[in-house]
Each structure stands twice: as structure tokens, then as C-alpha cells.
Specification:
Glutaredoxin; four-stranded mixed β-sheet; 4 helices
Amino acid sequence: MNTCTLWHNPRCSKSREALALLRGRGVDPELRLYLEQPPSLAELEQLAAALGREPLQFMRVKEPLFRELGLAAGDQRSRRQWLEILAGHPQLLERPILVAGARARLGRPPEDLLELLPTKRGD
């Protein structure tokens, strides 16, 4: 498989589970420790496009910080405003996310990441 990147939080059990699942399939992804290396607005725009989702669809809306910031899932904000919130508060980013080329998948559940792996042909 071409290089892939796992947006990873080692403190998150689902993120650790996803990494173990990938490695168990022979995939050793590059790790993007997004809390240590916060993504830029441009990176988040690319991520949204690769996921095929709006920013609110890959935000941790149940995270206490979401409410502390006065946010609600029904807020009428622009796509850019949601991306700016994510850029300023990367802990609101849902994880894990696997990026492979121009495609990405959210690992909720972690097995969803396997959609990006090539299937083996029985030649």
C-alpha cells in the first residue's frame, strides 16, 4: 500500500485499537499526533474533502470542551467557521482518521479504516 497516515491520539482506546488493527494487517502507517502537531486550516480543508464530510461530522460534539466553547451541533456556522474552531481546538477532532492519498476514513468503528486498504486478489 502506498503511504498512509493515521491521525492518532495514543491516549484514545479507539485510536490505539485502530493502530493495532492496521499493523495486524501489515500496514504500518505514519502517525500524525495531531494534538502535538495541530493541523492548519488548509490541512483540515483537505481532510474534510478526503472524508467527504462537513467539519461538524468529524467533530467530537460530546466532548466537554464543545459545550464549554458555547457550541451546539445545531449552530448555523459556515464550513470555514467550523474548520477554524477545529484548527484552534484540535482536541475536538474525532479520531482515529486514516488518510491514504486523496481518500480518508473515520475509524468509528476502527474496522471502517479497512475500506482504504487494498484487497488481495487470489491469483
